[in-house]
Design a protein that fits this description.
The chain has about 180 residues and is an alpha+beta fold. Helix content is about 30%, strand content about 15%.
Length: about 180
């Protein structure tokens, strides 16, 4: 049996505005009003609005966070481990993951035997798409040529290596046995 409805003693319009809160509408914004394009009280004037290229207005970003945002590593913890292991360096020097980066610095990243030497063009503390990440750095031409040469060498070695199709079939095993057991 449903509970009996209690009579309202005061209507919502009779309550003070602080108790009633803002009106909740059913529109696409849920009763909220959009902020002006000049930014709200929490965002500085001139700050980019929306989902732009995620470039920070700060002049510093942590090294591990930048590596993650530039999509060199899938997680910040993997980036921090690479920095601690000396696989990611700033200016050929080992640094800590919390080291602040600045645009114009050169970093080197070593992954799977490949080396990237890149110059930082922009800073970001948010991970975006691959197109946005590519705008954060520029690889040196010498690094790109060396990396491409190493990849071509690996491909050539892989193609020259004998390829075994896997475990022999029953028919192939019988042929091998007949060949080895011949007088």
């Amino acid at each position: 049996m449903p509970a009996p409805a209690l009579p309202m003693t005061k209507s919502a319009s009779a309550l003070p505005t602080s108790a009633a809160g803002p009106p909740q509408g059913g529109g696409p914004l849920g009763g909220r009003t959009p902020q002006a394009s000049s930014g709200g009280p929490s965002s500085p004037a001139g700050a980019p609005q929306g989902g732009g290229d995620h470039v920070t207005r700060d002049d510093r970003v942590r090294f591990d966070k930048w590596l993650w945002a530039a999509r060199f590593y899938k997680t910040r913890s993997l980036a921090a481990q690479a920095i601690d292991a000396g696989q990611a360096r700033v200016g050929d020097e080992r640094v800590k993951p919390a080291r602040a980066l600045r645009p114009g610095e050169t970093i080197s990243i070593r992954k799977s035997g490949l080396v990237w030497i890149v110059e930082i063009l922009a800073l970001s503390d948010r991970r975006g798409g691959a197109v946005d990440a590519a705008k954060l750095y520029r690889e040196t031409e010498a690094s790109a040529k060396a990396r491409e040469a190493l990849l071509q060498q690996r491909r050539a070695e892989r193609d020259a290596a004998p390829q075994f199709p896997g475990r022999p079939t029953k028919r192939q095993r019988r042929k091998l046995e007949d060949f080895l057991n011949e007088p």
